[in-house]
Task: inverse folding
């Protein structure tokens, strides 16, 4: 059945490795991956070239996908691949609907490509949440140490914390 | 304006070594190798990220270990490629390469950005110690080409005693663990640093010899392991001194390569009906 309201998007809780396409052995990111949803991730690393990584002890990762074609108005257009159709929607509208349904978190990380380096703003009512977003492509990685310890790394050109939306 | 993140605790990441700009040189001879490279680049299509595009099985010149009648010491090409990926700069790279090479000669390095997208790194035996790359002094070249905002490729080719070797085409994607010599190209506002070539100076060669001697003394297990690896050619021939310790006390396990996940943007034409929603 086709989705007609953003509130009906199936943004469900998923296993973090499943959500971030890390279940199968792969040496580079799957560029056709279209999965979305959210997951709790412990010891999350937000990495960017030549800058120190930011480590989040526990974060809620909201995995979304930017559409191939982006608007010129400074917003980010999302694309959700559903069984029957494809839904496109502005990120701000999706955040307005989705954040209220998520568990409370101090850090929410958008795993979301931002090809035009748009500024993301936290929706009203979420000024106390650190909403992390990136510029450029975001890719997910599972780093494995010599002692078999693993952690998830999200890589991008640069990471930011979203300022609150203007009143 | 958004708040830029700052580190909350240090990353366990790549080693940081002091790197300097080095002595710029204009005449490195690198340019002469470009047409040859271009042919190879064109021949290697369909590269998969970080998985090499391996030419047809059994194709000559793709062995990881390559020996010729002229060479007495093999080069571990995988290790050379890894050194390039992880190097923090040319001085770090030449130091790593000379740790990998188990022979007596010093490998000098020339690094030149030919344009915004293409960098060529040449390893050579500076036999006449003039600091310039002569064609007969070359032992390998690495060409790296930026393919897009977040991707690049590189390939290694052997020269002189290693002529005939060429690596698969390796894809690099932003997010892979790499040193700043390579990751710099993914930075916003990137501009090439080595339009005037960096070349190992005579003084630097002396420092490399000192460093390598102490490295070999301090890492006898790694050095002998590298020698043993280098002596075991694909053809089963051995070169130079045999032996080496095989005693206990195994080395600590190495970290495994990171596993790639997903990319969070759609880059393909819609194959289903598209609905746009705003509420």
Result:
């Amino acid at each position: 059945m086709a989705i007609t309201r953003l509130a009906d998007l199936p943004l469900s809780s998923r296993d973090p490795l499943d959500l971030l396409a890390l279940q199968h052995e792969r040496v580079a990111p799957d560029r056709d991956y279209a999965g979305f949803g959210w997951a709790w991730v412990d010891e999350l690393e937000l990495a960017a070239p030549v800058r120190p990584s930011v480590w989040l002890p526990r974060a809620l990762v909201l995995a979304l996908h930017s559409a191939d074609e982006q608007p010129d108005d400074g917003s980010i257009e999302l694309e959700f691949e559903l069984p029957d159709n494809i839904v496109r929607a502005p990120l701000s509208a999706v955040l307005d609907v989705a954040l209220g349904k998520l568990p409370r978190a101090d850090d929410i990380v958008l795993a979301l490509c931002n090809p035009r380096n748009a500024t993301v703003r936290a929706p009203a009512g979420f000024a106390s949440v650190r909403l992390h977003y990136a510029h450029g492509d975001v890719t997910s990685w599972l780093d494995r140490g010599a002692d078999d310890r693993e952690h998830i790394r999200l890589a991008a050109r640069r990471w930011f914390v979203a300022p609150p939306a203007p009143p | 304006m958004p708040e830029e993140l700052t580190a909350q605790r240090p990353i366990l990441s790549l080693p940081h070594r002091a790197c300097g700009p080095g002595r710029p040189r204009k005449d490195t001879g690198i340019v002469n190798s470009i047409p040859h490279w271009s042919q190879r680049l064109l021949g290697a299509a369909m590269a998969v990220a970080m998985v090499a595009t391996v030419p047809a099985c059994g194709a000559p010149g793709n062995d990881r270990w390559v020996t010729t009648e002229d060479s007495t010491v093999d080069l571990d090409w995988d290790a050379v490629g890894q050194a390039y990926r992880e190097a923090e700069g040319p001085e770090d790279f030449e130091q790593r390469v000379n740790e990998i090479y188990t022979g007596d000669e010093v490998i000098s390095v020339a690094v030149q950005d030919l344009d915004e997208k293409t960098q060529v790194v040449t390893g050579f035996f500076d036999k006449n110690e003039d600091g310039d790359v002569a064609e007969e002094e070359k032992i390998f070249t690495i060409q790296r080409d930026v393919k897009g905002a977040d991707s690049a490729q590189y390939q290694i080719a052997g020269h002189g005693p290693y002529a005939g070797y060429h690596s698969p085409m390796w894809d690099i994607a932003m997010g892979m663990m790499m040193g700043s010599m390579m990751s710099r190209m993914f930075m916003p506002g990137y501009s090439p640093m080595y339009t005037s070539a960096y070349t190992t100076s005579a003084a630097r060669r002396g420092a490399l010899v000192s460093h390598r001697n102490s490295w070999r003394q301090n890492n006898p297990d790694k050095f002998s392991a590298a020698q043993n690896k280098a002596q075991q050619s694909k053809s089963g021939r051995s070169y130079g001194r045999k032996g080496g310790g095989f005693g206990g006390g195994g080395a600590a396990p190495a970290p495994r390569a990171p596993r790639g996940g997903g990319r969070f943007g759609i880059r393909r034409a819609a194959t289903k009906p598209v609905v746009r929603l705003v509420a």
User: Anything to note?
Assistant: The radius of gyration of chain A is 15 Å.
